[in-house]
């Protein structure tokens, strides 16, 4: 199935940074130099690559966790910004999983379908027109996360902004999602590592797709 590799570029940049990412920075640089879809945001993307290559792996990992895992305004789980912890999120997950399966893909056991890097990886494997249609459904949330990252001064903001620029749909502002009562959430999920906030989602660091066997 032929898709647009630019989505894979963004997916990899938004995953938890491992040593393999740093080692592959020359390949990211080559893609930045060659992909026309990246030209409009070249300066910001170059700054991100320079940041990833100019700091220790431990530092960029700690900053990633602080940015995306410890701040819900920047969470890379699309439905978290739409439904919060409302139970309707589960139905939306099922519907999105059906989209994956429609094209013959299954997520790994520890992966959620609304994790943005997973969704972008999926887009890279399906026809570009279909990817754009699905992107148009998610662009409002992606734009919301990107604005929050820009406000926070994160070098990752440019990635979300570039993804938004790929969509023909004009993003609209989001309303605040419902928030589950803290006591109920603590009882259901237990405390996080700090012992203060509930664990609302599993930690996902890598994205793998498994085509269904015929």
Features:
214 residues; mainly alpha; two-stranded antiparallel ribbon; 3% strand; disordered C terminus
Percentage of residues in helical conformation: 55-70%
Number of strands: 2
The strands making up the biggest β-sheet line up spatially as 1-2
Mean pLDDT: 82
Assembly annotation: single chain
Integer-rounded radius of gyration: 17 Å
Query: How does the overall form come out from the CA principal axes?
Result: globular
Low-confidence stretches: 180-214
Q: Strand percentage, roughly?
A: under 5%
The count of helical stretches stands at 11
Largest sheet: 2 strands, antiparallel
Order of helices and strands: HHHHHHHEHHHHE
Please indicate the count of domains. Answer: 1
The SS-based structural class is mainly alpha
Distance between the termini: 15 Å
Per-chain topology:
Blueprint: H1 6-14, H2 19-23, H3 25-34, H4 42-54, H5 57-69, H6 78-83, H7 88-102, E1 105-107, H8 116-123, H9 128-151, H10 157-165, H11 182-189, E2 209-211
Antiparallel strand pairs: 1-2
Helix pairs in contact: 1-8, 3-4, 9-10
Detailed description of the structure:
The chain is mainly α. It has one domain. It is built from eleven helices and two strands, in the order H-H-H-H-H-H-H-E-H-H-H-H-E. It has helices spanning 6-14, 19-23, 25-34, 42-54, 57-69, 78-83, 88-102, 116-123, 128-151, 157-165, 182-189; strands at residues 105-107, 209-211. Strands 1-2 form a two-stranded antiparallel sheet. Helix 3 runs antiparallel to helix 4. The relative contact order is 0.17. Keywords: Nitrate assimilation.
